[in-house]
Design brief:
The complex is a heterodimer. Chain A is mainly β. Chain A starts with a strand and ends with a strand. Chain A is built from no helices and eleven strands. In chain A, the strands form two sheets. In chain A, strands 2, 4, 5, 9, 10 and 11 form a six-stranded mixed beta sheet that branches. By secondary structure, chain B is mainly β. Helix content of chain B is 0%, strand content 48%. Chain B has no helices and eleven strands. In chain B, strands 2, 4, 5, 6, 9, 10 and 11 form a seven-stranded mixed beta sheet that branches. Chain B has a four-stranded antiparallel beta sheet with strand order 1-3-8-7, with no helix packed on it. In chain B, β5 and β6 (53-57) form a beta hairpin. Classes of the chains: A mainly beta, B mainly beta.
Chain lengths: 117, 116
């Protein structure tokens, strides 16, 4: 069974700092990995999606890397802003075989980020 | 606003009652997903549809849960004989769904269920 762990569970940084969020997973045979953002009481917003064949993706101040062999991904946020405060979730997709049980999307518990003005 | 809507946003019910939630995906999206999220946890996958076909059901989806997408557009998730353990946020997502499972999912705001 795939397990996804996110460290730290919570992080508080002053505005302007660069920061790194970590995600690890136990089964490296993933199809893709996504980073999401969730604001309190709301749904998820997809930030970056990395295919299993890719090593990183960038969008604005965000950069996500993927190391399948070690079962790790990092989300780098540059020049953090108070508006970045949210919970960041990592999710890995396994597509193992056709038929029942082929689609397995597993989320971590998230890292709650607070950026202090 | 991602364009995925869910109704109702909040539902309070007594144990043993049946509840039904609705999700309207982005109009041209072929895939629709349901997730459940409890406090302090990440979302847990429940099921997904490709058009009107339900292609995958998690083991979390007990016999009391049923999901439909009759015309390949909106979807409903029904929980029969609710239990207190069903209290959670129920999230719906949709994706374009052409070809491989690589496309971005767009999430709705969720329906928060409280079972008393």
């Amino acid at each position: 069974k795939q397990e996804v762990t996110q460290i730290p569970a919570a992080l508080s940084v002053p505005e302007g700092e660069n920061l790194v969020l970590n995600c690890s997973f136990t089964d490296s045979a993933i199809y893709n990995l996504q980073w999401f953002r969730q604001d309190p009481g709301k749904g998820l917003t997809s930030l970056l999606l990395i295919q299993s064949s890719q090593r990183e993706q960038t969008s604005g101040r965000l950069n996500a890397s993927l190391d399948k062999s070690s079962g790790r991904s990092t989300l780098y946020i540059a020049a953090s802003q108070p508006g970045d405060s949210a919970t960041y979730l990592c999710a890995v997709l396994l597509v193992k075989y056709s038929g029942a049980g082929s689609y397995q999307l597993t989320f971590g518990k998230g890292t709650k980020l607070s950026v202090i003005p | 606003d991602t364009g995925v809507s869910q109704d109702p946003r909040h539902k309070i019910t007594k144990r043993g009652q049946n509840v039904t939630f609705r999700c309207d995906p982005i109009s041209e999206h072929n895939r629709l997903y349901w997730y459940r999220q409890t406090l302090g946890q990440g979302p847990e996958f429940l099921t997904y549809f490709q058009n009107e076909a339900q292609l995958e059901k998690s083991r979390l989806l007990s016999d009391r849960f049923s999901a439909e997408r009759p015309k390949g557009s909106f979807s409903t998730l029904e929980i029969q004989r609710t239990e207190q353990g069903d209290s959670a946020m129920y999230l719906c997502a949709s994706s374009l769904g052409q070809g491989k499972l690589t496309d971005t999912q767009y999430f709705g705001p969720g329906t928060r269920l409280t079972v008393l």
